[in-house]
Give the backbone structure.
Amino acid sequence: TTSSNVSSTDIGFKAVPTSTANEVVVPEGYSTEAFLPWGTPITGSYPAYKPDGTNTGAEQEQQMGMHHDGVHFFPIDLKAGGNSSSEGLLVMNHEYINQGALHANGATYVNDMRPADEVRKEIAAHGVSVVHIKRDTNGKWDIVFGSPFNRRITGNTEMDIRGPVRGYSKLITKYSPDATETRGTLNNCAMGPTPWGTYLAAEENWHGYFANGDATQPREQTRHGVGSSSRYDWELADSAADQYVRFNVSTIGATAADDYRNEANTYGYMVEIDPFSPESKPQKRTALGRFGHEGVIFAPAKEGEPVVCYSGDDSRFEYIYKFVSSKPYYAATAGGYLLDEGTLYVARFNDDGSGDWLPLDLDDADFAAKVAAAEGTQVGDVQFDGFENQADVLLNTRLAADIAGATPMDRPEWGAVDPNSGQVYFTLTNNSRRTEEQVNAANPNANNRTGHIIRWSEEGNDHTATSFDWDIFVFAGEQGTETVVDDEVIVSLTDDNIFNSPDGLWFDYNGRLWIQTDGSDAAPYQNNMMLAANPETREIKRFFVGPEGCEVTGVVSTPDVKTMFVNIQHPDGNWPDSSDPRPRDATVIVTKDDGGVIGA
Ligand code: FEO
Ligand code: CA
Ligand code: CA
Ligand code: CA
């Protein structure tokens, strides 16, 4: 071959136009196939999907959940140092559900109560799936039936509480009188693979699953918006089984024998799952904070150095966080214990393009002084009466970040770390409530309906640094939307790349940046999409458009970047199977017809 100065991150395909079609659109020379739709049997007795919606709760516990979101491919030989691109464990989140599609006749109520098996099915359609998949010699991917790795983790799976919040009195429930355990993970949006080959699932809008009809609520609920009724009315199941009762977190009705007032305090964490240990119990890693975790992204692990990861809190005016472990990383012994001790920081983006990481740690004199000064004052909607201890700080991470003086952002969604430059990117999806008075340099648009992507370099390119330099990678929007750097227009969006509400974000193993959208599907944007970007030149091209009504969320590839897995969440109508009246969330497998590298 001839030498070339074409960088490995150049975008080689012809951009696809916007689309309103109820199908997936990719560039010429690429093919797609829907894979692992909701209801696909993956474990146990492999109960078949029933298109009439009559699968039971027990059956759903053995089938793919709904609303596919963050996804990662673990090569099957990873633990042996391998890099297989033809066999692995595909692990993905199921964020929430479409009750209309899930049941034969939607959600039903009898005397204002919900049939318990409907609730069981809804809880089972949430959580995480681990699927052992393999590509045959014809290039077709399928489930490895009977594999011991195939597993469903649901909103009812037993889990441990780990880190500083473990054992804290505010997590005591009837189920766990010593505050060390809970059941289930819910509203798992994005995720992050760890440097030691496990998977962290984020708990995002968990507050919607709990009901509290009390006149006043504890700050651990008000700061998140737990309501008097829940999103799916699970607390109204016609069963006294405490797997349902626990979703009522009000004082009313709580007795010493049946007390779940603290159940909501066992949610809002990053949950570690070891896909290679099918019997392992998921671990809620509380040192990473409790908030509306969108996902997590790790900096490349370095031998003998702390582990560093970043996490966004996707709510209007919420924050971006960084965790730095106390203990050093050694590949031979690394494990989830590294996430149990360390410092949680929150980001302040200064208007001059610099930034600071503010520790949320009572042992830090600066933070302790801010906490002392705030005592007895009103912080947001909370009359602040102090923190009992560091566990209380982490349980109330948002409140701690308010007190520290973090920068309120335009809904931080996914993050990604550039494998070439080490820069950290975050999508800021939109924030229609920001006023002219509330703009700052990092969130400069009032009524920000289309979002932007911010990025930063840690000082000295050291991810443990406490300061950084940031800039805005791109502003999303209509044709002609400009991103200006030093008075020069670096990006001006065209028909090839208009987009809005960036959400999913991922650097592939060659360093191309993939941007997914969850925004308005009105003109001119049309259906949600995925674009590829060159981080050096900021060239951006639309690669993929999803079917009607969906968001495009979750992307990963095999290590050779020749098979890509892209999740389609909440499609409308009869996608992907036109003969099935039910929409089914699914993973789309993308390949290049010549077997080449995707995006090149
Ligand atoms: Fe579940 Fe913030 O998207
Ligand atoms: Ca979503
Ligand atoms: Ca998202
Ligand atoms: Ca979103």
Summary: The longest strand covers residues 127-135. The pocket of MU-OXO-diiron (ligand 1) is lined by residues 95, 189, 204, 294, 314, 413, 503 (CB under 6 Å). Helices lie at 57-60, 99-102, 116-124, 219-222, 242-245, 365-374, 390-395, 397-404. The mean pLDDT is 96.
